[in-house]
Amino acid sequence: MNVLNKNIDIAEVVKNDIAHHFHPFTDHKSFHAEGGPRVMTQADGIWIWDGNGHKLLDGMSGLWCVNVGYGRKELAEAAYKQMLDLPYYNTFFKTTTVPTTELAAKISSVMPERFKHIFFTNSGSESNDTIVRFVRHYWKLKGKPYRQHFIARTRGYHGSTMVAANLGGFQGMHEQVGTEFPGFHHIKQPHWFDLGGDKTPEEFGLEAAAELEKKILEVGPDNVAAFIGEPIQGAGGVLIPPSTYWPEVQKICRKYGILIISDEVICGFGRTGNWWGFETMGFEPDIVPMAKGLSSGYLPIGAVAFADHLIKDFFELGGEFYHGMTYAGHPVAAAVALKNIEIIERENLVGHTREIGPYFAEALASLRDHPIVGETRSVGLIGAIELSNDKARRGRFASPGRVGTMCRDNCFKNGLIMRACWDTMVLAPPLVITRKEIDELVRLARVALDATYDQVKSELA
Ligand code: PMP
């Protein structure tokens, strides 16, 4: 790939960016002091190039989204064709478009039978906003208007709109939202490495699930509308719950008549080796928000699938749902998402992920001998490496996030994109990754870990 032949003045782009671009999730003072952005210009498969011709293995699929990998001409062609046929029409006021309807049917076809109805949004955040609106109205329709409260987890991530930030369990976000909205509660995350103490992971899974029942009793069982969780908490640090956790959570929700929302924005579309993370983790949700892998990030689109038992009452009793976005079900995004799902099916990327998952797990496990690696874990093609100053005691370096950031920067320098969630290094490569490429990913990760070790070895216990 001839990346240097693009005639882009990268210094000019950086200058312009610093002058005009207000970035999300960025501390601009240090960002500008460090010289501004790295400019990404081209990508193919699992590889991405910056404007200086530096080649990186994208271990994060962009932001957990480019499931089918970069450089898919078919997706560009689907967008081009749809733009010529009909670039836009809305789905309000009793109209639809062909790809929007086909996509709803296609999503439904890769879900359990009970999910026949799909609401479209533009992002994961909007999907979760939609759900809060739907669920609160639903319980009113059912004659239980007091069921308005949501329970979620600390370090759960559900998006960045006002409601989604409240639903999520990131303290820094709550503080900046200004005032926490009423009706959102958080229980501890099922993260054995940090919180499991002397318990086995299975014992700890039950203990973490029991927190849900405690919270339900505290809020009042009749007041709780729904529990929301990512099957595996992604941005929280790829927290893979022990096998006992989700079945117990489901039991508790059913006992109190509480709806279960499985946030599949990261885990959906094959990431865990099944179409949906709830299949891998063994539970049955009532509502499923999705985004990212739905279009593999080629265009912005999100969606929510609702189970029949909710839809039946909602359609019969609900009147008008006063909610919707101009671009909901956008025909071009829908055409691309449809083609993306066809690629996942045709290339059996879900089966490939399931099949290659154990190889990925073993490759990560080969890093456990490293002096600053406390644990590795993965399911399918989502995984984590815990950085530790004391392997035997699952110890942590001082100032959470400091060493993780060092390691992330060392990865970038050495040709690998691996993200740091505090001191947990996380990975979610495109689902097209091969065994040979996994070997290369792990080789590059070790180079970065070695460089990080050199910087922090005096801090080891
Ligand atoms: N839910 C989960 C589980 C996510 O990981 C994200 C994004 N990282 C969101 C919701 C929000 O999605 P978006 O950024 O598209 O609004």
UniProtKB/TrEMBL annotation:
Q: Which Gene3D superfamilies match?
A: Aspartate Aminotransferase, domain 1, Type I PLP-dependent aspartate aminotransferase-like (Major domain)
Q: Keyword Plastid, does the record have it?
A: no
**Keyword field:** Aminotransferase, Pyridoxal phosphate, Transferase
Molecular functions per Gene Ontology: pyridoxal phosphate binding; transaminase activity
Q: Does the UniProt entry include the keyword Nucleus? A: no
PROSITE patterns in alphabetical order? AA_TRANSFER_CLASS_3 (PS00600)
Cofactor requirements of the protein: pyridoxal 5'-phosphate
InterPro entries, A to Z: Aminotrans_3, Aminotrans_3_PPA_site, PyrdxlP-dep_Trfase, PyrdxlP-dep_Trfase_major, PyrdxlP-dep_Trfase_small
**Its GO CC terms?**
cytosol
Superkingdom of source: Bacteria
Q: Which SUPFAM superfamilies match?
A: PLP-dependent transferases
Family, per the entry?
Answer: Belongs to the class-III pyridoxal-phosphate-dependent aminotransferase family.
PANTHER family for the chain:
AMINOTRANSFERASE (PTHR43094), AMINOTRANSFERASE CLASS-III (PTHR43094:SF1)
Recorded protein name is: Aspartate aminotransferase family protein
> What organism, scientifically named, is this protein from?
Aestuariivirga litoralis
The root-end lineage is: Bacteria, Pseudomonadati, Pseudomonadota, Alphaproteobacteria, Hyphomicrobiales
